[in-house]
Amino acid sequence: MKVATYNVNGVNGRLDVLLRWLAEAAPDVVVLQELKAPDARFPVREIDKAGYGAVWHGQKSWNGVAILARGQNPLLTRKGLPGDPDDEQSRYIESVIDGIVIGGLYLPNGNPYPGPKFDYKLRWFKRLHDYAAELLELDVPVILAGDYNVMPTELDVYKPERWKDDALFRIEVREAFRELVGQGWTDALRQLHPGERIYTFWDYFRNAYGRDAGLRLDHFLLSPDLADRLAKAEVDKHVRGWEHTSDHAPVWIELADKPINKRRK
């Protein structure tokens, strides 16, 4: 199974890019972020013509997440992250596809630091931490994929010294990510590329993509049984070079049908 995550930065404005990539990459499952469209404006007909069923959780102008499944309709299990009934931001969606629970998320940016947006980010991270622990207790295959808006280590950012007070790289946020992974999740891309400098995001400004001045913001966290099946984890970097593309590139993993790795202690 090939599963991808992609921050499209506007699903309608960049629909041509999304459809081109779907035709080229043919993922079985895709988690999308930053739809920037209310539910009624999600391009369900175009997605259906491309061969994908979809569930989505939209929001006018901002945020928005979706899950696509090739040749089938995802079974929707949740819209919104538990823990704050007053939170109206569309940042989490969950479905079951082929027996796997797939949570798609768009974690808050949190800038500027310090401030209320940063505080909201930490609260959201805490809610994710609590809910992720519940998912692990179910002892079912789970993927938590999306734009986490955090560079976990210095290897994940082109100039770490310039980012120390940015909400994407603050020590509190990096520690929250470490605590989340420490529950028993596997960071798929880092698991297969432990020492490589790999990015998933390049700003539109200052020729960031041309200079490869990037950040690794988009992550796959796998439950233990799926970590055992992890065969590949890559970034479709070339998509970031397309015309009118997102500032993120698609990230994808391949899962084998049976365990291929020894269970990590």
UniProtKB/TrEMBL annotation:
Pfam annotation, one family: Exo_endo_phos
Cofactor (UniProt): Mg(2+)
Highest taxon of the lineage: Bacteria
Database matches in PROSITE patterns: AP_NUCLEASE_F1_1, AP_NUCLEASE_F1_4
Keywords (A to Z) from UniProt: Hydrolase, Magnesium, Metal-binding
Stretches assigned to the Endonuclease/exonuclease/phosphatase domain: 4-248
Enzyme class: hydrolase
EC identifiers of the protein: 3.1.11.2
Gene3D superfamilies listed in its UniProt record: Endonuclease/exonuclease/phosphatase (3.60.10.10)
A Gene Ontology molecular function term of the record: double-stranded DNA 3'-5' DNA exonuclease activity
InterPro entries reported for this sequence: AP_endonuc_1, AP_endonuclease_F1_BS, Endo/exonu/phosph_ase_sf, Endo/exonuclease/phosphatase, ExoIII-like
Family per record: Belongs to the DNA repair enzymes AP/ExoA family.
NCBIfam families: exoDNase_III, xth
Name of the protein in question: Exodeoxyribonuclease III
Organism whose genome encodes this protein: Neorhizobium petrolearium
